[in-house]
């Protein structure tokens, strides 16, 4: 019996401005492709897939070679191809990763990106909108990550991606910071949620899954849709650090071990602190000495654990350190609280 080989694109070597950002084009937080001038070979929605691009030798569909990204047909007229995207959250954009992984003789030679603010996803309305160029035309190469920082300080809701004249892009990451998520100081929000600007800062191990998965909406789809460390064979415990979308005071904590049955942590605890500045590395160093917001609590398999009365009194915090003891997997972490006024 033959097996089909799959080649996975390597991850980008992200600069600091990207590591400190949320991917505003992630469909898991509501981003979606609205329209493309052409996507004959590969539909535009694939370009937003949060998973790395793959190449499957020998895979074809009715239109030709199957490609994991957005690919237009060879243009035989004047002009260029383009698409309209809705960001998952209105946000300030710090830059892009335009990834052409696995596109070699068919990549787009150049790209530019425009942005607008709109309450409508209607294509005709967006076509008539006033667009601002935030990434002037830049050249692209074959099968590579292209990282572009921008200086825009405005918050945007939609993008128009132009490729010149045609071709393919495997993935587009839009790195930035959501704004306007906390518009009522009297409401309780999930301060760690990715759609509210929460981000994974650091971790000691993420052998399976990703720390960022802890901050996604909904319950995990499977064990891979969470954060799981390797089996610990030495003293101590595993941990990760999360920066909240805004400084606030926690009122309820939810730890979800969905799908983790023989590999959930025995216990967990959470430490927290207010950090007015510093680097991600300084947070790692300081986090060992942060006070406990949630003292050690037992966990069980495949369940949502809710803590309210167990939360220690504390002032506003910007960062938390989530300790899993001694190791294991979590699916989601919800940190409900009020934003500091």
TrEMBL record:
Specify the domain of life of the species encoding this protein.
Bacteria
Q: Catalytic activity annotated for this protein?
A: allantoate + H2O = (S)-ureidoglycolate + urea
Q: Which GO terms describe its molecular function?
A: allantoicase activity
Cross-referenced Gene3D superfamilies, in alphabetical order? Answer: Galactose-binding domain-like
A Pfam family of the record is: Allantoicase
**Pathway involvement of the protein, from the record:** Nitrogen metabolism; (S)-allantoin degradation; (S)-ureidoglycolate from allantoate (aminidohydrolase route): step 1/1
Q: What is its EC number?
A: 3.5.3.4
The record, for HAMAP family, names: Allantoicase (MF_00813)
UniProt name for this protein: Probable allantoicase
> What is the organism of origin for this protein?
Azoarcus indigens
């Amino acid at each position: 019996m033959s097996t089909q080989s799959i080649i996975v694109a390597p991850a980008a070597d992200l600069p600091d401005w990207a590591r400190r950002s949320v991917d505003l084009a992630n469909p898991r937080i509501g981003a979606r492709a609205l329209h493309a001038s052409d996507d004959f070979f590969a539909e535009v929605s694939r370009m937003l897939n949060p998973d790395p691009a793959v190449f499957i030798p020998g895979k074809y569909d009715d239109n030709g070679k199957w490609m994991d990204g957005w690919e237009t047909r060879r243009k035989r007229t004047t002009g260029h191809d383009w698409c309209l995207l809705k960001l998952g959250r209105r946000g300030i954009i710090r830059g892009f990763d335009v990834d052409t992984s696995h596109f070699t003789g068919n990549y787009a030679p150049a790209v530019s990106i425009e942005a607008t603010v709109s309450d409508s996803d209607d294509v005709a309305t967006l076509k008539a909108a006033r667009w601002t160029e935030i990434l002037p035309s830049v050249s692209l190469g074959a099968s590579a990550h292209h990282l572009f920082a921008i200086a825009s300080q405005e918050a945007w809701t939609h993008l128009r991606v132009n490729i010149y004249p045609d071709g393919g892009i495997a993935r587009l990451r839009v790195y930035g910071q959501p704004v306007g998520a906390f518009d009522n100081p009297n409401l309780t929000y999930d301060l760690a949620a990715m759609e509210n600007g929460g981000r994974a800062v650091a971790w000691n191990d993420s052998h399976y899954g990703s720390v960022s998965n802890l901050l996604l909406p909904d319950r995990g789809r499977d064990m891979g849709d969470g954060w799981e460390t390797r089996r610990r064979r030495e003293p101590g415990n595993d941990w990760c650090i999360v920066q909240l979308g805004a400084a606030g005071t926690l009122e309820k904590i939810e730890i979800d071990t969905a799908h983790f049955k023989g590999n959930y942590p025995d216990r967990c605890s959470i430490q927290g602190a207010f950090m007015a500045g510093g680097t991600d590395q300084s947070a790692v160093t300081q986090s060992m000495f942060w006070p406990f917001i949630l003292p050690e609590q037992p966990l069980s398999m495949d369940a949502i654990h809710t803590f309210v009365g167990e939360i220690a009194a504390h002032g506003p915090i910007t960062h938390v350190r989530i300790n899993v003891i001694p190791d294991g997997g979590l699916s989601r972490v919800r940190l409900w609280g009020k934003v500091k006024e």
